[in-house]
Amino acid sequence: MTQFLGNSTNKIDAKGRVSVPATFRGALRNAKGEPAFILRPSDLHPCIEGWPRATIDAMAPPVDAIDPYDEEQADRSLLWYGTAVEPPMDTEGRIIIPAHLAAMAGIAGEVMFIGAGRSFQIWSPAAGAARLAEVAERMRARRKVPA
Questions:
Q1: Which of 68, 85, 97, 145 pairs with 77 at a CA distance of 20 to 30 A?
Q2: Which distant-in-sequence residues (6+ apart) come within 8 Å of 66 by Cβ?
């Protein structure tokens, strides 16, 4: 399984494209070398989550196993599938972040990609840096490690 590691801040060009970090690109392509990933709003934070299609397929229950009359299952399906997009990636590894996702995450001009193991997150740079600092501080506090 591929892991998304590190972080990178990249500018959005005049055509609205942003380069996905080179270290992430291989994990976002299927066996045929075609882009195969989704972007969706995070359920927890003001950022966008990126998931390889293979990871989503492995985690998700089969669509025909979802009970459309179970409100919780129907809500979860609508939220996951109804807000997800499969953006094209050009040969240079650039994508266009859909306007509704960019607006939700407060993204304009540049973005910060942050690896999160089996997925990655896309933040506005200031919010991403603040999130990393917040998590680091919380982890230090849990370990009671001096600052």
A1: 97
A2: 73, 74, 77
Distance of alpha carbon 37 from alpha carbon 79, whole angstroms: 17
Contact 35, 28 (CB under 8 A): yes
Q: What is the predicted pLDDT for the residue at 76?
A: 78
End-to-end CA distance of the chain: 34
Mean pLDDT in consecutive groups of 10 residues from the start of the chain, 147 residues? 88 95 92 90 96 83 72 79 91 95 95 96 98 93 73
pLDDT at 58 (0 to 100): 80
* Domain map (residue ranges) of the chain: 7-143
Q: Report the CATH fold assignment for 7-143.
A: Chemotaxis protein chec (3.40.1550)
Q: How would you class 96 by CB atoms within 10 Å of its CB: exposed for 0-12, middle for 13-18, buried for 19 or more?
A: middle
Cβ proximity of 89 and 95 under 8 Å: yes
